[in-house]
Design goal:
Length: 182
């Protein structure tokens, strides 16, 4: 899966969580790839070895156990995002990776340069099993953006007002600004 499926569908599944931290959920939905793609390139010499440590149940448990023990919603949201990522990547089809280190080393992958790897990812969009989740994720992201438009606009307005107010305070106040302009 690519960006839209991971982020969009993780947000959709977050409706099952009460009070999810959306920022941490989004981070969690991409965290296995954020960790494993560079790790595959550095440690194994190929980005195609991008399903290693962060695509395992061990990694998920290292996030989920403390999150549930401390009842920390940000960590719970991140662990939920990682769980959705593993499901969307069909990791049960690669038990050597999912259950690492119980079944031995990570399976090998073809050694590809970065451009060949990107080409392989984009070619994968011909597969309906990859394309349809990407479309569904993008559709949910668009729905989410429209549904949250008022909240986003209010947040932007508040941020801009704070910025204007602080710049006015630094320059001597709004009243003085108006007098200078007239």
């Amino acid at each position: 899966m690519l960006l839209f499926a991971h982020v969009g569908l993780a947000l959709a599944f977050a409706r099952l969580l009460d009070r999810a931290s959306l920022a941490f959920l989004i981070l969690g939905s991409m965290l296995p790839d954020i960790i494993d793609k560079p790790l595959g390139l550095i440690a194994f010499g190929s980005p195609s070895m991008g399903r290693t440590f962060a695509h395992t149940l061990l990694f998920l448990m290292l996030l989920a156990v403390p999150a549930l023990y401390y009842r920390e919603m940000r960590l719970i949201s991140m662990a939920w995002g990682v769980q959705v990522h593993l499901v969307l990547d069909f990791m049960w089809n690669s038990p050597e990776t999912l259950l690492w280190p119980l079944l031995g080393a990570f399976p090998s992958a073809p050694i590809l340069d970065t451009l060949s790897y990107i080409e392989m990812l984009l070619t994968g969009l011909k597969d309906p099993g990859i394309l349809l989740p990407e479309i569904a994720g993008l559709a949910y992201l668009m729905f989410f953006a429209v549904a949250r438009r008022k909240q986003a606009c209010a947040w932007i307005d508040r941020s801009l007002r704070k910025k204007r107010a602080s710049s006015c305070r630094r320059s001597g106040g709004e009243h003085e600004k108006r007098n200078i302009r007239t």
